[in-house]
Amino acid sequence: MLRHDLPNGYALRLLEESDAEELFALIDANRAHLEPWMPWVPDERSAEDVLPFIRLTRKQIADNDGLQTAIVDGEGDIVGMVGVHGVDWRNRKTSIGYWLAREHQGRGTMTHAVRAFVDHAFGAWKLNRVTIEAATDNASSRAIPERLGFTEEGTLRAAERIDERFVDHAVYAMLAADWTVS
Question: Residue 2 and residue 32: Cα distance in Å, rounded?
C-alpha cells in the first residue's frame, strides 16, 4: 500500500474497498461542514454510495490518470481526502481537490498534503501546471493555495452548482518553473 508520511504525524495512503464504511462515516459526521462546498455530499447516503468512488480511485491509478489519497491521522483513521482530478498529459497539467474533517483543520495538515501532491506533480510526473479551484466564499479552502504561493488567476462565475445555488470559483495556479520541489 502506498503511504506518504506528512511532517505533522498525518499521512497519505491509497483507499481500499474495505475503507467504505469508515469513509462514509466521516462524510456523514461532517455533512453540515462539507455540504456548502461539496456538491457530491448529498449523494453519499451509505457505504455502498462511497464504493464507486473508491473503485474509481483505483481505476484512475491503473489508467495513469492521477491519484487520490486518504489523509489519515496518527492512529490510521481517515480524516479527509486529497487528490488530482485527472492528468492532461498532452498539456502537462492537472488540478487538485481536497477536503478535511472539521476537527482536524487548523493543524497544517492540508497544506502539507497539497504540498506533497504538488511536489509529486512537478517532480515525479514532470507536469508544468497545477491548478486549484475553490469557492470564492470558502476561506479555508482558498487559504491552502495562498499559503503555498499559488497565483490567483481570476474568478470563474457560477462555476459549480451546489444544491440549488451556483458558486463562483477562485482559480489558483502554480507553474513548475515557480515551484521548488521539497
Answer: 31
Q: For residues 137 and 153, give the distance between their C-alpha atoms in angstroms, rounded to a whole number.
A: 16
User: How many other CB atoms are there within 10 angstroms of residue 117's CB atom?
Assistant: 23
Question: pLDDT digit string (tens) for 18-30?
Answer: 999 999 999 999 9
In angstroms, the CA 54 to CA 69 distance is 10
Q: Which triple of cell numbers denotes residue 119? A: 511536489
Q: Crossing angle for the helix pair 20-29 and 47-62, nearest 10 degrees?
A: 120
The number of helix segments (H) and strand segments (E) in the chain equals: 5, 8
pLDDT tens by residue, 57-111: 999 999 999 999 999 999 999 999 999 999 999 999 999 999 999 999 999 999 9
Q: In terms of DSSP H, where are the helices of 65-176? A: 109-122, 139-147
Tell me the one-letter amino acid at 149: G
Residue in the structure block whose three cell numbers are 472539521: 102
Strand partners for 171: 133, 154
Specify the DSSP class assigned to residue 37: T
Asked whether 23 and 50 are in contact (CB, 8 A), the reply is yes
